[in-house]
Amino acid sequence: MAEEELTFTENMDLTLPERNLSNLAIRFPELLPSRHFMDLSRWPIFCILNTELLSTVRKIFVFGNSGNEAIFITDRDDVFAFGSNCSNCLGLGDSHSSFEPRKIDSLCQKKVIDISFGSGPHVVALTQAGEVYSWGHNGYCQLGNGSSSPGFIPGLVTTNVINRKVVKIACGSHHTMALLSDGEVYAWGQNNCGQVGTGSSTNQPSPRKIIATIGTRFAVAIACGQTSSMALLDNGEVYGWGYNGNGQLGIGNNVNQPNPCRVVALQSIIITQIVCGYAHTLALSDEGSIYSWGANSYGQLGTGNKANAVVPAKVTSQSESRFVEIAASHYSHISASMCQNGKVYMWGQCRGQSLTSPWMTRFSSTDDVFAAFSTPQVSWRIYSVDLIKGSRVADAVAAAFDNPETSDIKFVVDGKDIHVHKTILKMRCEHFRSMFQSCWDEGSKESIEITQYSYPVYKAFLKYLYTDDVDLSPDEAIGLLDLSNSYCEELLKMKCESLIRQSISVDNVAMLYAAAIKFGAQTLEDFCFRFSLNHMTAVTQSEAFNKLDESVVKEFIYKASLAGAFRN
After folding, report:
1. Who contacts 202 (Cβ-Cβ below 8 Å, separation ≥6)?
2. Could you name the domain of life of the organism this protein comes from (predicted)?
3. Predicted structure pTM score
4. pLDDT, tens digit, for every residue of 500-524?
5. I need a labelling partner for 538 at 20 to 30 A (CA). Which of 69, 138, 146, 263 fits?
């Protein structure tokens, strides 16, 4: 049956007659304001677990041809698997399916930080120490153990990567890639279309460094389509190789490539993230725009039509906020993204329907899009679980923030009250520990007025002490960075830097660069400097750059000259 194309518009009236509303609810329940789900209930396979076990789950990964296999990690770092066990992909040592979760003993207490799967099928796991484990189908040597024998339990991948730190893994249908901490890219497995990047079409039984074109360059990200591969370099350049029948390499033709080829059409655009669907590719720029290319039979490119694209095209969206994340899986034809304002969009093949342009959902993460609308319902990355609200002590502490009924002190900022608890502040912050345990005048007060910071900034700071989350817009985060520097809150400082990076543009990067220097935010300073190098002409002509102190300008020019910015 042919896919039905949806023609929703952003201002669609959802207050429709009951009959139409019911039809919409059946097809797209998450678009309706009355629908609310517990986090894990979006994944059907997790509905069979008991509540006690669910309460221990911290990370999950769902895979399989029907979304019927899953691996999860508990709060004790135990790793469990359950489901259909196709080709031994549960890693339990046998080929028996199991609705009862069983431990993958060889991965327990290994601090698994990433999992990837190939639709072949095979599974690869990455530990915090940088070790790679693989298991499952191995007919094309995709496990990287030098043989084509199946793996019943996770086996350590050793050739060329042992005693080296792998930081990212990715799987195509029958091939695997690994990114090392030194920026080198290794690949192995099926190579019929050149997806391993060795310059030939011979299968590769063990990890082999990709030398051609990117061999001496520093890669920062990798991604796999079904039979294609992509790499993102530290300067924002994108390279692709392997199958190109749908234009998924973005190089302007449909010819397979056995070696990495640069996506030249992105030459003037700095890319910061790249992901692959079944036969399409998405790229996110440092200015928050999304570019797509490849297969488009379901509208997965988000260009408003169903025509394939052999070169990158900008994704059309009515969102006024910049995009900060993109998502896709080589298992499906769906695409998703998140904006800086937290809005999540989806397009492509959505539960048997075709959305040709980004559609705003009520989800809070791109992971939820894949749980509810992907076919099959599989993860696009390992998913950290938010527990049900109120189920932990931490939730009770968070709920106590700004509660006048339980607080024993309040801060007054810009004439507004913020109700907090001395005990929590003392436990969480050295500044308040000194304030309330010494001879400070504030130690005996029930109300303290704050004049150095704005109400949104100080409230965000106090809320952070209760929740570990920063609830503040990127535009206001500079004030919080100032506060975190003054209060010596290094973790908060890092969170602020990360938040601020989401809003960097040609117009404000000079101001943010100066602020980073002032507040000792080295990571943010480096990021702003690299961004400025990539947009040198526009940045140096901006109003913010003209307002910089002379000493900052001189230091910037000196650093830029060392980086080769002024070479002919």
Report:
1. 191
2. Eukaryota
3. 0.81
4. 998 899 999 999 999 999 999 999 9
5. 263
